[in-house]
Amino acid sequence: MFRTRLLSALAIALVVPLLARSAEPLPVVTVWPQGAPGEKVDIGEEKATPAKGRDAIASVTNVSKPTLTVYRPAKDKNTGAAVVVAPGGGYNVLAWEHEGTMVGEWLQSIGVTGVVLKYRVPRRPDTAKGAPPLGALQDAQRALSLTRSKASEWNIDPKRVGMLGFSAGGHLTAWAATNGDKRSYESVDGADTLSCRPDFAVLIYPGGVVDRENKEQLASEIRVSKDTPPCFFALAYNDNGPLDGSLKMIAALKKAGVSAEMHVYSAGGHGFGMRAAEKPHATWPARCAEWMRAEGFLTAKAEGASPVADGAKVEKLAGGFKFTEGPAPDADGNVYFTDQPTDRILKWSTDGKLSTFMEPCGRSNGLAFDKAGALWACADEKNELWKIDVKTKEKTVVVKEFGGKLLNGPNDIWVRDDGSAFFTDPYYKRGYWKRGPAEQPTQGVFFLSADGKLSRADAGELKQANGIIGTPDGSTLYVADIGGNKTYRYDAAKDGSLKNRALFCEQGSDGMTIDEQGNVYLTGKGVTVYDKTGKKVAQIDVPEPWTANVCFGGKDMKTLFITAGTGLYSLKMNIKGTARQ
């Protein structure tokens, strides 16, 4: 008697949050702005069938225009995680309610942004017999990239975007999770520069993951490897096909060294989804939430929390410099920085040792490492941009003029993973210059493509651009107008074009950096930290009049390094920095 009541209470607890539905219409995003790829025939108008009877399902079919229905949590509950949901239905229909909308509502209730994917069904006539429909994978991969592209708008972490699927949607989730290295369609816009691999996968009674002919091996499209994300499985013992496939897949994950968790319930059959029941299988959402939390996907701190480690204090690492600038971490966490008046690039190693890396160094100012390990330097002496081979210390002058005229003086630079870069070009007259007045008409931003083409980035009116940083996915750029005492945010396209300029905060900055949660760090009087919405979350005081620049470094990338006048300082943080700073 007690066991039955307990299970009933658990089932009710899972359903209650789903009843508190907003009166506001949910945001719906079109997956393919110019139409889905590969659509050759008209399958007729989309059709929705409501549930009739206790065991019937509400379904949708004839989907040719895929969409994302977005369930955003309240700000005070938002964990920063997001999950793309793929309902089941045998690739013929979509079980739209108990494997779709109810899942979105549940995710919303636990602080996760639920993104319910309406992917293409039914199978198209040209789908090879026995093969899964490619259109569904295209829709799923596009949904994952598109969700990441909305990180700033939806207040989510692009590195915590998972996927959850049921039955055929479970197969689709496994398919997407094991094929993130190859996009199944030609890129259509900037969103497709972002990863199409889920950061974690939730597979609820997934079907079709074993080979149709040889039941002892996984289907050819389920390519489990060490790069497969962590997986969670939930299914019933009396659901033979999904049970067999899930056991084989988790064995493959084990062999590949991938973290996984499986819950096999004694009963429940196939297709239970989010339906309330007095059976243990109805508790799978609670187990799934526990797993996501244990794996670190629901770990965001409360809005406005300080990123500084509890009890941490600013520590002076070294002093005696003339004016420190331009810190940048290499792949191991060693921090390189400049002492511009003495014409040196110095290195603070992860074992706490200071050394001179290059002297002279072209009066270098801002520094940045690219993905290949080369060090880029804003060489202020002759208003050039250098690329330095760290092993040989050989330099290449990459940029020295634009339009036949000298640059004002490259100051700060950010290099994207694809090798392209943005840099600022303010004019600060130097005593060591052997040149005339400024030749460039504006003190703005330049874009250098990966193949070496230089262009002026249209960043709007700026009095004197200085600090610059971008998000790890390369889609968002922050530029500080130190002359106007403002910082702006832009959507940065792959070709370097800047769109949707927005005021980020009423503060300029000399240098800038960013952490893995999207907090932006500005310098000047100490270090001021703003969250991704532009809200101030921390003020770090530094015992010198002016803080020039800042970056993350150290073996775990959880130490903030601060260049401030005559000294180099550090501060322990709760949050890691990003790789490219």
Tell me the number of helical segments per DSSP (H or I, 4 or more residues long). Answer: 7
Find the structural class using helix and strand composition. alpha+beta
pLDDT averaged over residues: 92
Number-wise, the strands total 37
Low-confidence stretches: 1-23
In angstroms, what is the radius of gyration?
26 Å
- Principal-axis shape equals elongated
Q: Strand arrangement, largest sheet? A: 1-4-7-5-8-9-10-11
The CA-CA distance between the termini, in Å, is: 60 Å
- Report helical residue fraction: 10-25%
How would a textbook summarize the main sheet? 8 strands, mixed
SSE blueprint and pairings:
Elements: H1 2-19, E1 28-30, E2 47-49, E3 59-61, E4 67-71, E5 82-86, E6 94-95, H2 97-109, E7 113-118, H3 134-149, H4 151-154, E8 161-166, H5 168-177, E9 201-204, E10 231-236, H6 240-256, E11 260-265, H7 284-294, E12 315-318, E13 324-329, E14 335-339, E15 344-348, E16 354-358, E17 364-369, E18 375-379, E19 384-388, E20 395-399, E21 401-402, E22 405-406, E23 413-415, E24 421-424, E25 445-448, E26 454-457, E27 465-470, E28 476-481, E29 486-492, E30 498-505, E31 512-514, E32 520-524, E33 526-530, E34 536-540, E35 549-553, E36 559-564, E37 567-572
Parallel strand pairs: 5-7, 5-8, 8-9, 9-10, 10-11
Antiparallel strand pairs: 1-4, 2-3, 3-6, 4-7, 12-37, 13-14, 14-15, 15-16, 17-18, 18-19, 19-20, 21-22, 23-24, 24-25, 25-26, 27-28, 28-29, 29-30, 31-32, 32-33, 33-34, 35-36, 36-37
Helix pairs in contact: 1-2, 3-5
